[in-house]
């Protein structure tokens, strides 16, 4: 009898709620909360279910950009890619770090691995960076033909994530490509344009000790000396253009890959 009373009580509760006028404040608030809760559960569930596919897609984008740089070599056969983890402070390799597992993009989210970037050096707008970085040494017949460096920094509407390819002399650009960003379509997003990307090939990085590589303020006159180091600015996308220059100067500088590049020059690869 008690079970029947409970059932009648539950039924009567629902019946009373259902019979409330639609403009009743309690009924309105309750239905709104129920819909919001159901929506949040669906969104959260979709995020969890789709995340593996998103990560797989992002990983595929990264490797397709590396493959794009490899295709810039005169002969893309008989290539060996040696993936290493580098201590950015010393420039030394880190034998204990597995390149297949280390993700420098995620490391800054781990407070124990955070390295704060001094404000006067944070031209890429990162705030912090990982202590280590994954680099790719591309070799043919034992000779280093290209060094691929992950780079990132603030653009106009997003953080730009990409790869810079340097030739074996460490002073000539093989290519620059970005695999993730949310820059404005038709403006900053033109960093993906084949015509713009092709301009990077063959540009010089340093003039003696001075880092010169970057994006110009407009169309570069090929007869000017700085044309050796600069590509055309993106029309209507000044902040994205500046962001690309800034991230290159940060990562090629002393707080980025500078110590590692110095080590490579000293030991010949």
Any key phrases for this structure?
269 residues; 2 domains; 5-stranded antiparallel sheet
Quick take:
This protein has helices at 2-18, 25-70, 194-198, 238-251, 258-267; strands at 79-87, 115-116, 128-129, 132-140, 143-154, 159-167, 173-180, 206-207, 210-211, 214-215, 230-231. Mean pLDDT is 82; it is low at 45-56.
Would you mind describing this structure in some detail?
The chain has helices at 2-18, 25-70, 194-198, 238-251, 258-267; strands at residues 79-87, 115-116, 128-129, 132-140, 143-154, 159-167, 173-180, 206-207, 210-211, 214-215, 230-231. The protein is α+β, with helices and mostly antiparallel strands. The strands form four sheets. Strands 1-4-5-6-7 form a five-stranded antiparallel beta sheet. Strands 2-3 form a two-stranded antiparallel ribbon. A hairpin with a 5-residue loop joins β6 and β7.
Distance from first to last alpha carbon:
86 Å
SSE order in H/E notation?
Answer: HHEEEEEEEHEEEEHH
Computed CA radius of gyration, to the nearest angstrom: 26 Å
Number of strands: 11
Rough outline: elongated
Oligomer: single chain
Poorly predicted runs are 45-56
The secondary-structure class comes to: alpha+beta
Number of helices, counting only DSSP H or I runs of 4 residues or more: 5
Helix content: 25-40%
